[in-house]
Automatic annotation (TrEMBL):
The gene is purN. Its EC number is 2.1.2.2. The active site is at 108 (proton donor). One of its GO terms (molecular function) is phosphoribosylglycinamide formyltransferase activity. N(1)-(5-phospho-beta-D-ribosyl)glycinamide binds at residues 12-14. Keywords: Purine biosynthesis, Transferase. This is Phosphoribosylglycinamide formyltransferase. SUPFAM superfamilies: Formyltransferase. It holds the Pfam family Formyl_trans_N. Residues 3-181 form the Formyl transferase N-terminal domain.
Amino acid sequence: MLRLVVLISGGGSNLRALLDASDDAEFPARVVAIGADRDAEGLAHAEEFGIPSFVVPFNAFDSREAWGDELVDQLRQWQADLVILSGFMRLLPPRAVEALSPALLNTHPAYLPEFPGAHAVRDALAAGVAQTGASVIIVDHGVDSGPIVAQRRVPVLPGDTEGRLHDRIKLVERELLVDVVLDIANGQLDLTTLA
C-alpha cells in the first residue's frame, strides 16, 4: 500500500479526489496525513475522513529554510512513500526538495512548460491560446520546472472566464493525479527514472 501525505493551502479539491479514490478498498494507496502551511479550508477533509492533519505555519519561522526543515520533520513522521503538493502555494526551500525528491509531486493548471507560476489560467486566457492543460510534475528547485510525469490538453472555449476554464482544468488535474498515484502504486511508473 502506497502511503501518501498531501500538502494543501486552500480547499483541497485534488486532495478530495485522492480521498474518494482511496475509499475504494481496491485502490492501492492511502492518504495517511494531510498538512498545510496555514489554517486551510481543505483541512476539513481530514476531519471528515478521519485522517490526521498538521499545520506548519510559514509565519512562525524566521526563515523559509527553518520552515522547510520543520515541514520535512513533520512529513518524515508519517513515513510517506509519496508527498503531493495539492494547491500548496508555497515554494519549498532547496533542502526540503532534496530531502523528498523524487517522491514529491505537484499538480499545475497548465500544459507545462507553458504558463508556469501562480496565474497559469489567467496567463493562458491573456495569451489567447486555443488550448491549455493540466500537468503533474516532480518538484525541483524551480517554479513548475520539474520533470513532467503526466499531462493532458484542455481546450479554451469561446467566452471562457478564468473561473470556468480553471474548473474544467481541475477536473483533468484530479484524473491525472489519481492515475499517476495508481501507476506508481502498481509499479508501472518509477519516478527515479524521470528525475
